[in-house]
Design brief:
- With 481 residues, the protein is α/β, with parallel strands linked by helices.
- 28% of the residues lie in helices and 22% in strands.
- The strands form four sheets. Strands 1, 2, 3, 4, 5, 18, 19, 20 and 21 form a nine-stranded mixed beta sheet that branches. The chain has a six-stranded parallel beta sheet with strand order 9-10-11-12-13-17, sandwiched between helices.
- β11 (212-216), α8 (224-238) and β12 (242-244) form a beta-alpha-beta unit.
- The chain is globular.
- It starts with a strand and ends in a 16-residue tail after the last strand.
Length: 481
């Protein structure tokens, strides 16, 4: 018996939230063929993994990698931290199905300029991903704001009945072509005016496909509980699972409310499948929102179209240099992006540790000065929060970014180290793994990642990408095969 790859003497943490075990893992034809002591078996590539952990490849459930997976298919920010699958189309914004009439509206501009949006149908996007052959697998949600952009001239109101019907048809077509579900970004101005009823009517398409509803809540600030109640109402109406995106208690006046927020999540979960994702930092990042401009916490500008030299500088410094108020400075910088240091570390830890939470980076690859979560989210959970802080055992950390994520999004054959499953794997040193990217130098690869396999293809080896790309498009459910 000649295998393609043998990984011997590994400490296997298989994604099921149970303690690891020592074993050899054999790969052939892109799949895990055997997990045991393989003895004298031979392979084309034979690796001694003694002292290291072999885990399922990490699934980044919250990304905005929609267009970058095609334009920069090497995907180094994700591959270098052990991510083998990215879920795109979050927060109501997706690269498809999209037909622009000009520049992409905020926050769709987070995905790139108008030239990046060339996928009027979901199937066009799926074909483009497959043609690009990225280094990671790609699964996609359909964005509510993207649908509104396609069918509404004025995004600052709720949709009419004919517009909702048109959006439903386009969503249904996308689900038929393998979309995972619908995402909303109701906090953003171009979706905020959408009524709850508008969203509920759209989500009526989900149940027939076993699809999910994910949402950037209408508010993550003081009305967060009301926003969560709206999300759960929509999910119950749709009879579809609800995933709250990057759950947080935003704004200094909201700090310390995570027990209330998590209690609301638990209460909803008693009668309906709900969960959340979160990133392991007490700072957020998005477009520069005038409603979030405050002197209560630090705000760093990540990019500005009229003033690109201000990227990487604090808003207070820019306003002081210009001799204007914070709000006036923010208006001058528009359109722009920002990092908001608006969360409490205790809230971040409670939400991250909760059994209903998954890990997602929410990284913004288009930012010239990105939040460090783009390069460091997953190693930060493993190294800082699990090993150094002791927030949860290593097998729980791995479960939050593998088995739990695959189950929530219906990615069959992924997320667990199991015979017959696809060989999406990451080999890392549990003693040395750590995030290196920070808010001063955010574009730095993590340490301690020794190998990353995507569909059996070794793509990241001893801290370096090797140029081999084994990713593919993952359609919902059984179509992922």
């Amino acid at each position: 018996m000649l295998y393609d790859t043998l990984i011997r003497n590994a400490h296997v943490i298989d994604g099921r939230d149970t303690p690891g075990y020592d074993a050899d893992v054999a790969i052939r034809a892109g799949r895990i063929e055997r997990i045991s002591d393989v003895g004298a078996a031979r392979a084309v590539v034979d690796i001694d993994a003694a002292g290291r952990v072999l885990a399922p490849g990490f699934i980044d459930v919250h990304t905005h990698d929609d267009t970058v997976v095609i334009r920069q298919p090497q995907m180094l920010p994700k591959l270098s931290q052990g991510v083998t699958t990215v879920i795109v189309g979050n927060c109501g914004i997706s690269a498809s199905p999209v037909s622009l009439r000009g520049d992409p509206p905020d926050p769709m501009n987070l995905l790139g300029p108008a030239s990046a949006f060339t996928y009027p149908r979901f199937s066009d996007y799926r074909d483009a991903v497959e043609a690009a052959a990225p280094a990671v697998n790609v699964a996609a949600l359909v964005g509510h704001t993207a649908l509104r952009n396609n069918h509404m001239d004025d995004l600052l109101r709720t949709a009419s009945a004919p517009q909702i019907a048109a959006m439903r048809r386009q969503l249904r077509e996308s689900l038929e072509d393998g979309a995972l579900g619908l995402s909303t970004g109701l906090a953003y101005a171009n979706a905020f005016c959408a009524s709850t009823d508008e969203v509920m009517q759209l989500t009526e398409e989900l149940q027939a496909f076993g699809a999910v509803y994910t949402t950037h809540l209408r508010s993550e600030f003081e009305p967060v509980l009301e926003a969560m109640a709206e999300a759960f109402q929509i999910g119950r109406h749709a009879q579809s699972p609800v995933i709250i995106s990057h759950l947080k208690c935003a704004g200094a006046g909201n700090w310390g409310r995570s027990p209330q927020v998590l209690a609301a999540l638990e209460n909803a979960a008693r009668n309906h499948p709900v969960g959340c994702d979160c990133y392991p930092y007490a700072a957020s990042s998005s477009t520069l929102d005038l409603k979030q401009v405050t002197d209560a916490h630090r705000i760093t500008i990540t990019w500005s179209t009229p003033h690109p030299s201000m990227g990487g500088r604090d808003l207070t410094d820019i306003a002081g240099e210009w001799g204007v108020s914070l709000l006036d400075a923010a208006q001058r910088l528009q359109p722009a992006g920002a990092v908001y240091y608006g969360m409490d570390e205790g809230d971040v830890r409670r939400i991250l540790a909760h059994p209903l939470s998954m890990v997602g980076s929410d990284g913004l690859p288009e930012d010239p000065f990105p939040h460090p979560r783009l390069w460091g989210a997953f190693p930060r959970v493993l190294g800082h929060f699990s090993r150094d802080v002791g927030l949860f055992p290593l097998h729980t950390a791995v479960h939050k970014m593998t088995g739990l994520s695959a189950a929530r999004f219906g990615l069959e054959g992924r997320g667990d180290i199991r015979e017959g499953h696809w060989a999406d794997l990451v080999l890392f040193n549990p003693q040395t793994i750590r995030d290196v990217a920070d808010f001063i130098e955010p574009q730095r690869a993590a340490e301690g990642i020794d190998g990353v396999w995507v569909n059996g293809v070794l793509s990241y080896d001893e801290g370096q990408a090797n140029g081999r790309r084994g990713g593919r498009f993952l359609a919902r459910g059984s179509l992922a095969e």
